[in-house]
Amino acid sequence: MWDIPSELFREILSRVPAGTLLRFRCVSMAWKTTIDDPTFIRLHLNHQIQSPSSTVVGHFILRGDLCSQLHFLSLDSLNRDNCEIIKASPLKHNPCYGWTKCLVGSCNGIMLLSDSKGFNFLWNPLTREFHRLPPVRVMIKKLRGLYLSVCGIGFDCATDDYKVVKIAQVFDPRDRTLKSETLIYCLELDSWRRIKDFPYRISRLTSGVFLNGALHWISSTMQLKCMGDLVVGIDLATEDYRVIPLPVLSGPEKPSAKVLGVLGGCLVLSCYYQIERLVVWSMKDYGVEKSWIKLFSISMMDHIGAVETLRPLAYSKCKRQVLLQHDKREFLWFDLETKKAKTMRIHSGPVPFSSLFCQATLVRLNHNNAKRSSRDKVNTAN
To answer: Could you give the CA distance from residue 56 to residue 69 in angstroms, rounded to a whole number?
Structure first.
C-alpha cells in the first residue's frame, strides 16, 4: 500500500466520506497526520462542494420545541426505499451552555447555534469541535421602536474564513423611520466589526441563505411594509450588496408568505397562499431573473393537510423527489412526476421539532484557534 505515491494516496482519501476518514485516523500516526492536515481537509471539502448535490453525505439535526436534547438522522436513512418510519438518535454532545434556542444555519459542515443564555456557537457535529462567539454589541438596540435581528453563516473562499453576519433593524412607528446596523464576525480574527448598513427592510425573521459566496434575505423596497419583493445578498468577500429579483407571480392572488432556501445548489422561493397552496420556484441560473422556473406546487387537495408548514429541504438521489418537513412532526417525499406524497414518520425523536441539514465534513474550528494563538504570541513578543 505504501508504494502508492503520496499525492495519489491523498487524492484517493479525499474522496472517502468524512465519517469514515475519522475512523481511518486510528490506522496509524501517518494516516492521522494526513487526515488532520489543513491542506487535505480543504482538498476533501473541495471534492464535496464540486460533487452533485444528490451525492452529498450529511445529517439532519433535530431540535425539539419542548426538550433540550438534540437528535440526528442521516440523509441516507431518508433515501431508503419502502421505509416509512425512521429512527432519530440523540446526540450525546451539545456545545450550548443552556437550552438550544435556535438552529440558525449551516455551511460546509459548520453549524451556527444560539442558546437560551444568549450565546452563539459554531459547531461541527461530526468532529464535535465547537467555538463560542464573543458577545456582540448592537447600538441601535437602545433606540425606541420595533426591533428585529437576523443572522446567517457563510464561507469566504477569498480568505478561507467562516463568517457570521448579523443584521439589526429598528422601525419607529412614530416618525416611520427605519434604522439599520450590520455586523460581521470572522472566525480567523474571532471578532465582530460593523460594515455598511443593510439597504432594505428585512421582510421575515429567517436565517440568511448562503449560496455563491453571499448570504441572502428576502427584503422589501418599502420601509413601511414588509412586502418581500426582492432578494438582497451580502457578498462575504467584498461586503457589497447584490439585489436579485424575484420571479414574476401571475394571477390576482398574492402569496401570504415567502420563504427563501437552497435546493440542489439553486435558490428556491416557497410561496404560501394561506393554508391552501404552496408553489416552489427555482432559480436555475444564479442572478438571472428569467431563469426562475416553477418547480412544483402542492395543495390541500393532495391530502397533505395545511401547506403553510411545508418546507422543502433536499432532493432524493434520483432527483425525482423532494424532501419536505411537514407540521414540525414528520417528513414527506413529494414525487415531482406523480405529484404524490409519502409520509416519513420519526421514531424516538422530539415532537414537535425544527430541523437543519448539516453536511458531514472535516472542517476544523480548533485549527483557527491555534492560528489565532500563534499570532497573538507574535504580537505580544513584538
So the answer is: 26
Q: Which three cell numbers stand for residue 259?
A: 420563504
Residue 189 backbone zone (phi > 0: left; psi -120 to 50: alpha; other: beta):
alpha
Asked if 310 and 355 touch (Cβ cutoff 8 Å), the reply is no
Residue with cell 441516507: 76
Residues 17-33: what's their mean pLDDT?
94
Q: Which of 316, 272, 267 has its CA nearest to residue 298?
A: 272
CA distance 322 to 148: 32
Distance (Å, whole) CA 281 – CA 297:
9
Across residues 57-65, what is the average pLDDT? 90
Q: SS3 sequence, 173-228?
A: CCCCEEEEEEEEEECCCCEEEEECCCCCEECCCCCCEEECCEEEEEEECCCCCCCC
Over range 107-129, report the average pLDDT: 91
273 with 252: CB under 8 angstroms? no
Does the reported pTM lie above 0.85? yes
**What is the pLDDT confidence band of residue 319, given thresholds at 50, 70 and 90?**
confident
The residues, any chain, with a CB within 8 Å of residue 222's CB and separated by 6 or more, are 201, 229
Q: Which residues pair with 177 in a beta bridge?
A: 172
Which residues, including other chains, have CB under 8 Å from residue 290's CB and lie 6 or more apart? none
Task: Write out 290-352 in H/E/C secondary structure.
Answer: HHEEEEEEEEHHHCCCCHHHCEEEEECCCCCEEEEEECCCEEEEEECCCCCEEEEEEECCCCC
The pLDDT of residue 223 is 60
335-345 core/surface letters (b: 16 or more CB in 10 A; e: else): eeeeeebeebe
